[in-house]
């Protein structure tokens, strides 16, 4: 007791001191970001606002990216569509800055994250409003999908990022027992990202945070459908980098169309792409020219499975959030609903009741549950999917209502519940990216597993059951990258987890340890464990010119190291020692004769 008592006291004292240290807030400076040109000052009216009317159909690429509010078609301005030469210049500038940033300390990188986190928390409304204006989503959807996810990622990096980027020691095996084996994680250089429009804030910050924290530079091409907000969010990043003394040009936001993205792929050291499978294939083809690593997060057709033993009222609310995530602009959203036949009628009735209570309208013009569709002509695609399903026997069970719509009516689509669906319908096979809820019944776990796997996509799934083991068993048999048990999309809020899919949903991962290390050159290193006392020496029998019994020596050495029987290994070890002794003896005799 006398020996252990001081150790206990020291342990308690250390824990108390560490807890008290945690209570001391970090000194985090505030940054000033000019937002005067992105906020409405109240003086704009319908009469003095320019309503943007984009041309329909496929257009030739222009030298300007025109920006407008999809919910009102109010003109926001334009961004430059960068040429390939301009893109290469941006990457060159980032590459020079990265050479300096590569030697930055983790302390400096953490301070950068804290400054960003402080600004985000203090300016949530501003960030969400800009996202809402540029994409048509509601403020609540922006908070859930933009603010919370980004804050969670920053917090995880602050807590664990350095640990996962430090050298990781591995076992050295039997033949290299005298060595230390480790993995080092070095910056790749310039990380390129081409991101989609559905989360303009988070989709910029997500790759940027991982790249910069791991010592890289980042050049991010934002979508032509959400360039206005991306350019403002860039100001936040610039201000935070300047506050920690980071080199200029470490992070770039670029705007443009397809040729801009192609030029980026050709210039960087790794590319991260968030978008459609079709464009993802083109990204891969372009990346093959320079053989850079690629991470693809592509489409999804996530299955939402509801067993008969659930709390129906709770699941219905979760199902609605999953279906209408991001104002009907799904990202890993639920697009196929499979409900057990015993509760199918009750589930449909409750979903229809909830859908009919949902109002759709300009998100900043009142209290609306759902906003606008961001992409031009996407409502027409959604209606075509509904029409195809109806032609094949499906029925509309209920739809939401429109709010006060004067302009931009083509940019809205009401939440729609479809029943009597099957897998012959495009709605159950093609990614909708919209607020359509197709509900199909199933009779057994085996049947629903087969249905859920009948898709070219494999991003995520959600399985609900009163029996958790049953839900886990179903999810474990679904061919997808992420799974939520009795919840929806909770995997992405756990930023320690990797995110990504299989099949046409892409490959590679971002987020988590895997995503962070994917921004690194992973280098395997072996060093002498007891240097300089024990050094590597080639055994005499296999030194050049090799001895007559060199192969016999190798046979004995292999069995001594890896034999399954301990007595055979011991016998072989004795033989190894014997051969080496004989060879050394011969060498000594040769030296004496000379």
What labels describe this entry?
alpha/beta; Aldehyde Dehydrogenase, Chain A, domain 2; seven-stranded mixed beta sheet; 17% strand
Explain the overall architecture:
- The protein has 594 residues and is an alpha/beta fold.
- The protein folds into 3 domains: 61-299 and 514-524, Aldehyde Dehydrogenase, Chain A, domain 1; 302-456 and 460-495, Aldehyde Dehydrogenase, Chain A, domain 2, CATH 3.40.309; 537-591.
- It has 18 helices and 22 strands.
- The radius of gyration is 30 Å and the shape is globular.
- It starts with a helix and ends with a helix.
Could you give a short description of this structure?
The protein is an alpha/beta fold and 594 residues long. The chain is built from 18 helices and 22 strands. The protein starts with a helix and ends with a helix.
* SS elements, strand count: 22
Q: Supply the CATH architecture of the largest domain.
A: 3-Layer(aba) Sandwich
Major sheet description: 7 strands, mixed
Low-confidence regions: 42-48, 326-332
Number of domains: 3
Number of helices: 18
What percentage of the residues does DSSP assign to strands (E)? 15-25%
- Measured on Cα atoms, how large is the radius of gyration? 30 Å
The proportion of residues forming helix, as a percent range, comes to: 40-55%
Organism: Musa acuminata subsp. malaccensis
Active site: 297
Protein name: (wild Malaysian banana) hypothetical protein
Domain Aldehyde dehydrogenase: 61-525
């Amino acid at each position: 007791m006398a020996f252990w008592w001081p150790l206990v006291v020291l342990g308690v004292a250390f824990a108390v001191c560490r807890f008290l240290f945690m209570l001391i807030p970090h000194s985090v400076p505030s940054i000033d970001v000019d937002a005067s040109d992105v906020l409405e000052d109240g003086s704009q009216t319908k009469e003095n606002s320019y309503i943007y009317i984009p041309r329909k159909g496929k257009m030739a690429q222009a030298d300007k990216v025109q920006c407008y509010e999809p919910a009102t078609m109010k003109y926001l301005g334009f961004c430059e569509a960068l040429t390939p030469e301009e893109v290469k210049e941006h990457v060159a500038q980032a590459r020079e800055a990265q050479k300096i940033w590569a030697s930055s300390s983790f302390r400096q990188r953490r301070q950068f994250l804290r400054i960003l986190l402080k600004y985000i928390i203090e300016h949530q409304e501003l960030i969400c409003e800009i996202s809402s204006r540029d994409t048509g989503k509601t403020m609540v959807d922006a908070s859930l999908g933009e603010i919370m996810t980004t804050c969670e990622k920053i917090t995880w990096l602050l807590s664990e990022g350095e640990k996962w980027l430090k050298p990781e020691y591995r076992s050295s095996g039997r033949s290299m027992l005298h060595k230390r084996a480790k993995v080092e994680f070095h910056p790749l250089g310039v990380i390129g990202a081409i991101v989609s429009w559905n989360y303009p804030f988070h989709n910029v910050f997500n790759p940027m945070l991982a790249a910069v924290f791991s010592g890289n530079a980042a050049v991010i091409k934002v979508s032509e459908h959400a360039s206005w907000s991306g350019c403002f969010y860039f100001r936040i990043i610039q201000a935070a980098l300047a506050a920690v003394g980071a080199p200029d040009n470490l992070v770039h936001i670029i705007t443009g169309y397809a040729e801009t993205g192609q030029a980026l792929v050709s210039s960087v050291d790794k590319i991260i792409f968030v978008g459609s499978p079709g464009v993802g294939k083109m990204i891969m083809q372009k990346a093959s020219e320079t053989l850079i690593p690629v991470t693809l997060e592509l489409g999804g057709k996530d299955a939402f499975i509801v067993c008969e033993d659930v709390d129906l009222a709770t699941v219905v609310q979760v199902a609605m959030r999953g279906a209408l995530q991001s104002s009907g602009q799904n990202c890993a959203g639920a697009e196929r609903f499979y409900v057990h036949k015993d509760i199918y009628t009750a589930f449909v009735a409750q979903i229809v009741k909830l859908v009919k209570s949902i109002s759709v309208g300009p998100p900043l013009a009142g209290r609306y549950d759902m906003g606008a569709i961001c992409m031009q002509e996407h409502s027409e695609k959604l209606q075509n999917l509904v029409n195809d399903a109806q032609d094949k026997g499906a029925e509309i069970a209920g739809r939401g209502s429109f709010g006060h719509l004067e302009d931009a009516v083509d940019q809205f689509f009401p939440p729609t519940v479809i029943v009597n669906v099957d897998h012959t319908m495009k709605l159950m096979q093609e990614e909708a990216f919209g607020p359509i809820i197709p509900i199909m019944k199933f009779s057994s776990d085996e049947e629903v597993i087969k249905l859920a796997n009948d898709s070219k996509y494999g991003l995520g799934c959600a399985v609900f059951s009163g029996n958790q083991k049953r839900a886990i068993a179903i999810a474990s048999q679904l061919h997808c990258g992420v799974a939520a048990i009795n919840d929806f999309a909770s995997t992405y809020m756990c930023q320690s987890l990797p995110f990504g899919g299989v099949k046409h949903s892409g490959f590679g991962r971002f987020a988590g340890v895997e995503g962070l290390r994917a921004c690194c050159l992973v280098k395997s290193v072996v060093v002498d464990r007891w240097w300089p006392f024990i050094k590597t020496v080639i055994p005499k029998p296999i030194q050049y010119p090799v001895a007559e019994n060199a192969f016999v020596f190798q046979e004995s050495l292999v069995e001594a190291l890896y034999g399954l029987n301990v007595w055979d290994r011991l016998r072989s070890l004795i033989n190894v020692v014997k051969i080496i002794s004989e060879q050394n003896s011969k060498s000594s005799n040769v030296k004496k004769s000379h």
